[in-house]
Amino acid sequence: MARSSAIFLCVLFLMVFSFSLSKKVSYVDKLDEDNWQNMLEGEWMVEFYAPWCPACKALEKIWEGLAFQKKELGINVGKIDVTDSPGLSGRFMVTALPTIYHVKDGVFRQYKSPRDKDSLVEFVAKQTWAKVEPVSSWKSPTSIQMSIISHFFKMSQVLRVVHNHLMEEYGLPTWGGYLIFAIGTIFLGAFVGLFIVCIIDCIYPPKQFMEQTKKKQKGSGGFMTAAGSNEDEIANAIKDDLVDEENSESGDSKSQNSTPNVRKRKSRKAD
Prior knowledge:
The protein has helices at residues 2-22, 54-68, 70-73, 86-91, 117-125, 144-169, 174-203, 207-263; strands at residues 29-31, 43-49, 76-81, 99-104, 107-111. It is an alpha/beta fold. It folds into 3 domains: 29-143, 3-Layer(aba) Sandwich (Glutaredoxin); 145-203, no CATH class; 205-249. A 5-stranded mixed sheet has the order 1-3-2-4-5. Keywords: Disulfide bond, Electron transport, Endoplasmic reticulum, Membrane, Phosphoprotein, Redox-active center, Signal, Transmembrane, Transmembrane helix, Transport. Residues 1-22 form the signal peptide. It comes from Trichogramma kaykai.
């Protein structure tokens, strides 16, 4: 009985030990939508891969070997599954798999050298990455425009899931799903366009409205100018009356002065 129990325990121990050996210990950090910003600090080598990609499977052992030496190289080694994080594939503009990026304190450089272990180690150890031109600021994964593109990639993934659900669960044909998306796109575009037009009208009113407001302002100002001109006309009329009175008085005084001279004339005697 004791022998059988001892044999059973030995077999159980061997099974657990073999299972622990069969389970691979990975030194690669997995990054996704939630923790990808960890690569903005320090030095990183990051691989974009997909489980169905043959070239990615061929690179897997080499990438694990690079991650095993990450402490000696003083770097971090990570990988991103584009099927689980489609937004990151759009943010980094991944067009081919596998794609490798070198990141140093938030500066991104794409690795385009041979994908063998010696080349990867030399790229980091001898700082060959310094000779590679970094990604421009407008294409930087941390920029606003690339963040917007990442949201579009996420949306496309959601639409793909909805399309597959409509075909599998409701039996809709492929053209039916595309028709629904086309109608939805038209209505969504019309709504967004109307919203943008309303915002523009609020910021920059139409010319007709501006002309009407200007006319109203001119009308109120014109009344004041008309009143002012009437007052000027009255003042000018009073001045003219005063001038006329002065002229008439001077004319009367001249006539009075001329009459005594006429009276002083003597009539001639008739011969």
